[in-house]
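Lay summary. Proteins are chains of building blocks that fold into shapes, and those shapes determine what they do. In this project we predict the shape from the chain. Here is one chain we studied, written as its sequence of building blocks.
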Amino acid sequence: MADLLLALAVISTGLYAGFMLIFQTGVMPALARLSDEGFVPAMRRINEQVPRPVFLVVFLAVVVFPAAALAVPGAGAPDTRIWLVAAGLGCAALNHLVTIAGNIPLNNALASSESSPDSEVRAAFEAKWNRYHRIRTGLILAAFVLLVGAALT
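And here is the predicted shape, written in a compact code that computers can read:
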């Protein structure tokens, strides 16, 4: 059971890390090339579409499966594996903290700024959102590497 939980932790974290990395390296650079009048509504639509059931399941899985893998350690699991899973869980939890405390409030402000000029909205949003996104992308990539390391021990 412990190996299955660790495998699910690796898979879910890998999926989420891939999503975050593609957003960092593809989506945001593409949006950056848009005018203010293109960027703001596009980002609003993305923010409406992303938090759907499949995304939310993966979002939760990246903390649930590593936590479960820690709660159900395998018989004779080396201490290194336990520490790597714990560190991976810590990075995933920090990723979620950055998302909840940083990106989501910016997304909410963007959604409620319909009556403001797009240039002002973008100026208040884009750089801060990207900064938080770089941090959370790094954290979830670190979580993935740590969990893969745990699975290989």
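What the prediction tells us: The mean pLDDT is 96.
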